[in-house]
């Protein structure tokens, strides 16, 4: 079963972390990633730039309209994800609890099963 484990970032929470806490967060992700690779459960992981560098595309009357910046004004945004292939939902939840963000008040880790997938991931 495939699951997306996504990290939801609140910049105010990250800004309030000490240098040591930020370093521990990065180190924790590195250790988590190595564990996923070793277990063979990792499909891919991606980190995303912050929403200030995003663009929203809409089509009105057949014309493309591009707006810079995030789609919605929000405190939190999607910071990245791990796509994993695991035995069941319980294992996905177990993995999500190992992500260091899950232990930081104000950050979130979401687990969602993949409903449909198509295409090929580059190696």
UniProtKB/TrEMBL annotation:
A Pfam short name: YCII
Domain YCII-related: from-to ranges: 1-113
InterPro entries assigned to the protein according to its UniProt record, in alphabetical order: Dimeric_a/b-barrel (IPR011008), YCII (IPR005545)
Origin superkingdom: Bacteria
UniProt similarity note: Belongs to the YciI family.
Protein name: YciI family protein
